[in-house]
Amino acid sequence: MAGFSSHEQQRKALGCAAELDPDKYPRRYAAAQARTKKQRTTNSPTQQERYREEREQLLPQLRALAPHYYITEVARRMGVCRKRLGRLAEEHGIQFAGRHGFTKKALSELVAQHQEKHANGNDIAAAVSESG
Q1: In sequence order, what E strands does 31-94 have?
Q2: Which of 92, 93, 95, 98 has the alpha carbon at shortest distance from 110?
Q3: Which of 19, 72, 73, 82 could link 15 by a cystine bridge, Cβ 3.0 to 4.6 Å?
Q4: pLDDT digits (tens, 9 = 90+) for 49-74
Q5: Domain that holds residue 35
């Protein structure tokens, strides 16, 4: 291997990373490409940042669909895992509609009103069908 007296002389003989010929110096070219690729990935967002951005993008659609559909239907329409939607809804206090189109809170309020109205409280199904 030839010795070089200066860095400039070495660059002239070997070339710099931007000027490397991939056919003439395949290993050096691959190493230079790997370095530039690594530099590009360090500027990209982290996994947590990407996850946070995805959640922020899902929230408006989730808020629009949750009052009208059960969690399984919302997951199918949005193309997102049901477990992930459940965690997201829990974090932001979003409630999904029940089987009859009511949220759990609205259904429990309806049951309480019906029980107050009728002392025996046996006809809950009729109250659900009347209001729906």
Answers
A1: none
A2: 98
A3: 19
A4: 888 898 899 999 999 988 888 888 88
A5: 8-42
How many domains does one find in the chain?
Answer: 2
Q: What are phi and psi of 117, to 5 degrees?
A: -70, -45
Beta bridge partners of 103: 97
CB 66 within 8 A of CB 95: yes
Q: Are 55 and 88 in contact (CB under 8 A)?
A: yes
**How many Cβ atoms from other residues are within 10 Å of residue 62's Cβ?**
20
Is residue 91 assigned to a domain? Answer: no
Residue 102 is assigned to a structural domain of this protein: yes
What's at 22, amino acid-wise?
P
In a domain, 26, yes or no: yes
Residue 109 covered by a domain? yes
CB 110 within 8 A of CB 98: no
